[in-house]
Amino acid sequence: MASSPSPPFHVAIVGCGITGLVLAIGLQARGVSFTLYERASGISEFGAGIGLSPNAEVAMELLDPALHAAFKEAITPNGLDYFQWIDGFATNEQIFQLYLGKDGFQGGRRSEILAAWAKLLNQEHAQFNKELVAVTDNANGPVLLKFADGTNATADVVIGADGVWSRTRSLLYGDAYRASYSHHYCFRTVVPMDLSIEALGKDRSFTRFMYNGPGAHAITYPVAKGTMLNVLVVIGDSKPWHPDITGHAVAGVESSAGDNMATTATLEQRNVPSHDNGVANRQTTGRGNRKDAEAAFVSWLPAAKAIIGLFPERPDRWAIFDMLENPVPSYSKGRVALAGDAAHASGPHLGAGAAFGIEDALALATILEAVDTNHAAGKDVHVTAALDIYNKVRYDRTQWLIKASREAVDLFQWKDPERGQNWPGFGDAITALFHKIWKYDLEGMKKEMLGLYEASTV
Ligand SMILES: Cc1cc2nc3c(=O)[nH]c(=O)nc-3n(C[C@H](O)[C@H](O)[C@H](O)COP(=O)(O)OP(=O)(O)OC[C@H]3O[C@@H](n4cnc5c(N)ncnc54)[C@H](O)[C@@H]3O)c2cc1C
């Protein structure tokens, strides 16, 4: 006798940043039905750089080998397979270096990586100009999504991948569970390689470096196939966050100072009005002043000061917000789950926020593919169990990253008197932090999830 057809099963993904997009591609590769809803008018990211660590590469490969291949096409190789730390304050000498693995932790422009991934997505599955404003998880019916344009949609599962100022999160748990200022801000830019070579020299322009000293640090690495240098400067700040809203202030959307016109257009395109005015503190960018960076680096050596000279006079200033103070109790509630920054926004100091979003996507694609929609208990019970397992497996590791990122910035900015300028201790601490991120057993994670799911369905 022919078996009866499976009941329809549909996933709604809210937000098409890195997490939402790679989840979509992972579901597409598994034949799981989904729709991606994004409030902006298209798939876009500004042009500053991002590095994706070895664990992110494994997760991409397991989500869909095409995703990994597209990433490798879009990135810029490091000159050396080592991350190098320089004492920018007292000696201009190398403090420590850490092996990245063969071709590991490579970076590229976000816009180029996202564009390469976007080509893999069947665009029929994506809807733009769809800002989520409400989610209702009704018993005995599908989950209902409402959008700011007055339209509705339904799904069997909703994944909120809508970033640090997640509307899905506040709908699930209330506005008290929101990101708070970590008392660090940053300036970012991307500069032509000839300017970098002139200011920093060839040796310091074509591979990944971090410059350390008291109260600040700087990271540089090549992007755009070696034609540009990505620069990120992070500065400690004891004051509350007050953005200068005369600049391009956009909630939850990143921008890059000194970037090209195309990037500015993209930024403005994404600066869509939000209906979420009830959430405070959404203004995370503002117009900054290079003088602030010059003041933070005033006693540093010329080699490090030359990095600050690469910024325009009025760069955009980014506040670093994270979920340390107000963590959500769980990444799932009924048939709705949170992923990426929506679940566990962390500081950028270990270069792993997006990587952990990609790991989340792998976890979700694995468990959603496994959901048994034919089971006697009903698909809703199974979806809830599956999301509960997702939370169990992801929660501790991702919450650890938030704390570890704060620990790392203290280390990089010599705030920890024990390890600050004690280079062997500095090296040991860095190695332990990065290896915990990079060497995670993602096959083991998948196995654990599927084992838990099987046990829950007996
Ligand atoms: C300075 C800096 C440097 C970093 N460097 C690195 C690095 O080198 N490596 C790394 O791994 N990570 C890095 N990170 C972290 C990384 O950028 C983030 O973790 C990652 O981009 C988060 O992706 P996401 O998709 O979860 O969220 P987002 O990128 O914020 O995407 C959320 C999406 O949801 C959409 N959206 C929001 N609200 C709604 C709504 N109501 N309805 C519909 N759509 C909505 C938004 O428009 C957006 O497209 C860095 C972060 C910063 C700030």
Automatic annotation (TrEMBL):
Keywords: FAD, Flavoprotein, Oxidoreductase. It comes from the Eukaryota. Gene3D superfamilies: FAD/NAD(P)-binding domain. It holds the Pfam family FAD_binding_3. Residues 10-277, 311-378 form the FAD-binding domain. Belongs to the paxM FAD-dependent monooxygenase family. This is FAD-binding domain-containing protein. It comes from Sporothrix eucalyptigena.
